[in-house]
Amino acid sequence: MFQSYTIKDIAKALNLSTSTVSRALNGSHEIGSETKKLVLEYAEKINYRPNPIALSLKEQKSHSIGVVVCEVANNYFSQAINGIESIAYNSGYHVIITQTHESAERELANVQHLLSRQVDGLLVSLSAQTVDTSVYEQLHSKGFPIVFFDRVAQHIPTHRVVVNNFDAAFKATESLIKSGFKRIAHLTSTSNLMISQERFKGFKAALEKHGLDFPETYFRQCNHGGVLKDEIEQAVEGWMNLPSPPDAILSTNDRLTTGCVPILKRLGYKIPDDVALAGFTNSDVAELFDPPLTVVRQPAFQMGQMATELLVKTIESKKAVETYTTEVLETELICRESSVHA
Amino acid sequence: MFQSYTIKDIAKALNLSTSTVSRALNGSHEIGSETKKLVLEYAEKINYRPNPIALSLKEQKSHSIGVVVCEVANNYFSQAINGIESIAYNSGYHVIITQTHESAERELANVQHLLSRQVDGLLVSLSAQTVDTSVYEQLHSKGFPIVFFDRVAQHIPTHRVVVNNFDAAFKATESLIKSGFKRIAHLTSTSNLMISQERFKGFKAALEKHGLDFPETYFRQCNHGGVLKDEIEQAVEGWMNLPSPPDAILSTNDRLTTGCVPILKRLGYKIPDDVALAGFTNSDVAELFDPPLTVVRQPAFQMGQMATELLVKTIESKKAVETYTTEVLETELICRESSVHA
DNA sequence: ATGAAAGCGCTAACAG
DNA sequence: CTGTTAGCGCTTTCAT
Fold first, then answer.
1. pLDDT in tens, B106-146
2. Biggest distance spanned by C-alpha atoms of chain A
3. Nearest protein residue to nucleotide D12, judged by CA and C1' positions
4. pTM of the shown model
5. Using CA of residue A261, residue A338, residue A199, residue A181, what is the dihedral sign?
6. Domain limits for position A283
7. 3-state SS, residue A289
8. Is A56's CB within 8 Å of B60's CB?
9. Whose C1' is closest to the CA of B28: which nucleotide?
């Protein structure tokens, strides 16, 4: 380890006791101002840094927060992580990121790993495969700070940061309808996720408002949230081989949206002429696609920030937090050619 | 903090001393097999987990490694981080990620933050603005484990993981030439970075091999590595207003490559008819662009893995490491329409 | 106003 | 084979 000075070194050098030094460093007012000055100056001179590990052991706090997401290499999450880091950093916490790759097993392992690392709190976005959220329930009931963002656990009353998923899907669907599409398919992740359910509800509501049918065959879920290309391919192929194939697709996550495009192309379908596409994604380059993609964009960075602020507040609150907020942010619908007849 | 059992609890429950318990837990052979079994079983039963913070304090090791990159929301780096995590996780290290946003100042602050966090080693990819690498030099000379990847510090003899940048740029440039482009511009990051220099050398070598000119006006650097859109815009606009504008561009990093496209489009230039484009990027969706992009892809995931392996090995080696390796991986050139005359 | 000492959880001499 | 003890760096009573 990279050796640095300790409080003991200072004490020895200045012929003081460690406790005096400690107090001086912490600005206690029961220390003579001369002594204090002496200590502070010397500490400055040797560039003294308190050992955070020793502090953690003492305080029973690790000053770190654990993050559970499906994937870092995902536009939404990398942006959210950015927001998380920005707040965590300024609040004196460091961030340990773990990836589930959409596996519930992996998620549980990650949580346990983070707990054994003594994280002070958890920032989690569930995996697509997660059904059993009892770990979180238990932790939460024991007073352990958890904040969910985006993919929240349904029945656990923690702080949450989400977007208005219903509205987001509603808007996107309505825009497809207004562009003249009538047979709209719905490509989504597992219905384990509340966001999937809500986005589907918004979608359905838009169809209903405009008196459109929704045959069951137009609904397809990808159990791995689009991590596996096969699942997307099967969905798309299944649709296009239908007697009456859809003329548009609404996809409800990053992976699915960007994953759809190459598959449609490879199968020889033109977007939007053969089938239109609109979907959730935080990709910065969706406008560069051929055709430019109509997208629903979430305020990922801000969501990361808010979630972290809430978590830090919970961690640092003296008394048990009793009331939990659910922050609901708005999304942005950006219409481009993929959803407009040429 | 989420309270868990300690070695003391076990000792008390079993009427043993803490040291006996400790030894039993660590499988010492100087412990009676009965006692050992007893301890192990009880520990299992109460789901005992050693406190990593106490361990760290004792061992003077934090079991964490610090990562310094410019940006997480960058295809190359998010993939590299994936590789880093995979190895770190399996080796019992956790990863603290920091972002420089291409600022040298920020980089220094990050390094200091990581050091004060007592990381056991550093995995770094320099920021585009970094000129002064003396922090690393000092650390390295004191025996602190550092591995550079991708953007390495020139004169510090640490382990390194890079790609064959010369060759990568050479191949890409030659492919442009073979497609008939003759006036090829070079869009790059600051020349502080060795990768910029090497990629430029490869570029020049290809031009020379084919007897092509390279007017100085065709060389443009972005001091913020493309983080600021303006810098790219200025470069591109400058070129296109030249009496003899380039007919192709080679861009040498992720941000620059994907940043070029919308600017060219907005200015009304068709790719590749008005100007062709080939560039370094690890984007997964470059083939979906309009037009599909010709790219140089680095084995980011693998680079992250190798760098982490080297770092862990360095951290854990008993004796000071004396010989350092530079791992050089190959890139992949994927030719698509952006660099081929229609 | 300052020092001595205990203790956070764990390991490792040292003693038996 | 097992227990006692000191110590990692720091804070915090409790004395003085």
1. 999 999 888 888 899 999 999 999 999 999 999 999 889 99
2. 89
3. A19
4. 0.90
5. negative
6. 165-298+333-339
7. strand
8. no
9. D1
